[in-house]
Amino acid sequence: MTGTIRSYEPEIRALATERLTTIANQVAKAFGAEADTAIEKGYDALWNHSEETQLAKRAMEGILGAEAVIETHQSCPVKTFATIHNIDRVLLFSRALN
Questions:
Q1: pTM score > 0.85 for this model?
Q2: pLDDT per residue over 49-74, tens digit each?
Q3: Could you give the CA distance from residue 86 to residue 57 in angstroms, rounded to a whole number?
């Protein structure tokens, strides 16, 4: 089985890693087997800084119009472009209206 553990808080990632290992071991033990878990640390979640995010939002509203700029909920994209390229600023999604 493979998967991804994503969280903004290092403590939560550590707890999830610990609990996942425990659950895998206990389920395997219940069936008379052993579990071999290998959890590798991946990319950290991207934090958008509030001031820079608002600056980018206003700029996009000026270019595309306010109706074309959509604020979304917080998410943890996988293999964050910002981490790969050492960018710790705004990740901005926009769409053009027809």
A1: no
A2: 788 888 988 998 999 888 888 877 66
A3: 22
